[in-house]
UniProtKB/TrEMBL annotation:
Its EC number is 2.1.1.-. This is Uncharacterized tRNA/rRNA methyltransferase MG252. GO terms for cellular component: cytosol. One of its GO terms (molecular function) is RNA binding. It comes from the Bacteria.
């Protein structure tokens, strides 16, 4: 049975998944063989070929196939962002404020946090025992290459962290982050997606800072909260 006949015997959703995968390969590797195979399949399906190979056109067609394939797309399954403005090296020295990830479960959140650490050139990242490491495939994928730029220590306990230890937590006793003066060296701790920082970390914290919130939902996603904190730290030290 030839390849064309076998392909056309597949369910429609499987055909569109195959098309989407070829476009993903072309988008990331830019090898002509992928788009040639894709256009051949489009001819088999009686669909127009893709002649405009701009990132937008490829992305639009990719998402069209996912829709027909009934694939529920998550953010980490998006095509990788094309960024031609990366610098050959950082434009500023690192700030000696480190980060502790306390029982964060989501590899996607960890990857996003690592991107933020690299973007703002903060210090080392300390991982608690059950937090996914930079070597985790999903962490690496979400971090978009930043994992290898980060110095990290695995399986760290609160007693091993640089001091002072600053807890980022929603608390009536917390100092608003825009009112807090970060020390020239120390460690910021962020906590679990469900229950926040552990009692062990809070009991050892030298200070607790919070992001002022005004909505009914008195919380933020941990990666988003850290991004706000990282921007505040960078603003304080760099102006």
């Amino acid at each position: 049975m030839n390849t064309k006949r076998k392909f056309l015997m597949l369910p429609s959703v499987s055909q569109h998944k195959k098309c989407a995968e070829l476009l993903r390969c072309f988008y990331t590797d830019a090898q002509r063989v992928f788009i040639d195979n894709y256009n051949e399949i489009q001819d088999w399906m009686g669909q127009p070929s893709l002649e405009d190979l701009s990132p937008k056109s490829v992305s639009d067609r990719f998402h069209k196939h996912l829709k027909y394939a009934e694939v529920r797309l998550r953010e980490h399954s998006l095509l990788p962002r094309i960024n031609k403005k990366d610098r050959p090296k950082p434009s500023a020295n690192r700030i000696d404020v480190h980060l502790y990830l306390d029982q964060i479960r989501s590899a996607h959140n960890v990857g996003s946090i690592l991107r933020t650490v690299e973007a703002f050139q903060l210090g080392d990242v300390y991982f608690s025992k059950d937090t996914p490491l930079p070597t985790h495939p999903q962490v690496s994928k979400t971090a978009m290459g930043c994992s290898k730029e980060i110095c990290f220590q695995r399986h760290a306990s609160p007693s091993e962290l640089p001091r002072p230890l600053i807890a980022l937590e929603t608390s009536s006793d917390g100092i608003p982050i825009d009112k807090y003066t970060f020390p020239s060296s120390g460690c910021l701790a962020v906590g679990n997606e469900e229950y926040g920082l552990s009692d062990e970390v809070l009991s050892q914290a030298d200070a607790v800072v919070e992001i002022p919130l005004y909505g009914k939902k008195n919380s933020l996603n941990v990666a988003n909260a850290f991004a706000i904190a990282a921007a505040a730290i960078s603003q304080q030290f760099r102006g």
